[in-house]
Amino acid sequence: MSFNPFMSTLPPTNTASMTWFVYAPRNAVHEILMHAAPDGTTCEWIDSNTTSAEELAGKLPPSAVVVIKFAPDLVDFSTHVCKILTSRRPDIHMVGSGRYSEGVMIVAAMRAGAREFIDITATSEEIRHQLLQILHQMVRENKEAVSTATSRSKLVLLIGARAGVGSSTLAAHFAVQAQLHMAGAEHSEKSHEVMLLDLGRPAGDAYLNLGLSSQFHYDDALRDVDRLDATLIRAVIAQHPSKMRVLGQPVDCLEAPRGGPPAMALIDRMRRHTDLIVADLGGLAPSQIPSPLLQAADKIWLVTTPDMASILSLDHLLKRISPDLPRDNRIGLIVNRHHEHTGIDPRQLASRFDLPLLAILPDSQQGLRSSINQGRLVHELHPRHKYLQAIRRLLPLIGLAGPAAAPSWLGRLQAATRASR
To answer: Which of 8, 96, 274, 291 could cross-link 87 (Cys pair, CB 3.0–4.6 Å)?
Structure first.
């Protein structure tokens, strides 16, 4: 028997009711796996000639395992299938199948998002060990997911209806306010960290606005995701004086942020080592928004301004992302730069799009511009600014009690008088 990297001694695994779904135009791989499947597992062939990738995504049960054939005449089709499953069903465990002798097919499968690759030219015993290896990997991942579920941080996406509506400025201020709230909590027994993930356009805005520089960026994190732990985060990811971390793309980056399995893995890894992730996706075209972020988000806040151009862009955005984003209670609307007596009423706007209105932010461009030009955020110069007060009212939506507003000069005087008695 030839050497196989999957051959190893494995402990027993509970595989009851496990099904291997084989998606291919012919049933050859299905026949091979039927004879090699571990005890307690079954195989089901889904004919790709009669079932589209979109239909496959809709009919598979949660956390299913799908085996996809990779061969020279199928590689483009199989890659397309993996792309559809990745965007619509990130819970699916994709496994490539083919010949080890065709090494380029293994590479193609892994790039497409397959987690493992089955050599269909191996003996039944070897294939059985490959399948057992896959099962044990899934068991380990499930145990790890359960053990970390209670400590996983929330992921909040801020998506601007179009460039220039203020989502990046909002993301930076909201992330810092959340960081300051966590750090100042009286019951806090450990350090807390908020991560600002800046993937919007123009690239690198968060670094510039916050006066930070970094040699470690989003693509570096994707490449080193397996090594990303609390120590590496502290060592290489930029930190604001508030203690908030900032990870983005270089200022001169023109490429859209990468998505797919690497992005999902990165988000999952960062959730284990931070308390909150605020992702700014402002300025991206709907097609450029990484689908894994939409799928994994706890909150998706759409930001617009009450003008006709932004409203039309918001309508376009909702239509374009709707296939990957079912309407649920994660989604809400924030109306920025509101004038009390001009523009469209925010409540009517939210009603028009059937979205909950989360916040109305006042038009504060002059104060914001003045602060940013000094390399500072509003709270550093004007802690009672009306823009900050509106942002702080968003904190309870992520489970943080809204902090008390900064005391007025009269409040501080009265407190000092009481303390001197």
So the answer is: 291
Q: How far apart are CA 282 and CA 196, in angstroms?
A: 13
pLDDT at 362: 84
Closest CA to 295 of 328, 269, 334, 319: 328
Confidence of residue 80 (pLDDT cuts 50, 70, 90): very high
Q: Which two tokens stand for residue 342?
A: 């001009």
Give dist(CA 336, CA 142) in Å, integer. 41
Q: What is residue 41's three-state secondary structure?
A: strand
The mean pLDDT value of the chain amounts to 81
CA angle in degrees (0–180, nearest 5) for 244-246-250: 165
Instruction: Please report the pLDDT score of residue 403 as a whole number.
Output: 45
- Per-residue three-class SS string for 239-300: ECCCCCEEEECCCCCCCCCCCHHHHHHHHHHHHHHCCEEEEECCCCCHHHCCHHHHHHCCEE
206 pLDDT more than 60: yes
CA dihedral 199, 204, 205, 211 (to 10 degrees): 130
For the residues of 93-117, what is the DSSP string, one character each? EEEEEE-TT-HHHHHHHHHHT-SEE
Which amino acid would we find at residue 86?
T
Comparison of pLDDT for 137 and 42, the residue scoring more: 42
For the whole prediction, is pTM greater than 0.85? Answer: no
Asked, as a colleague might, if the bond just before 62 is cis with ω within 30 of 0, I would say no
Is the model's pLDDT at 40 over the cut of 80?
yes
CA–CA gap between residue 258 and residue 340 (Å, rounded): 40
Q: For residue 57, give the nearest of 45, 70, 66, 49 by alpha carbon.
A: 66
Q: Which amino acid is at 352?
A: R
Nearest to 283 by CA among 202, 217, 196: 202
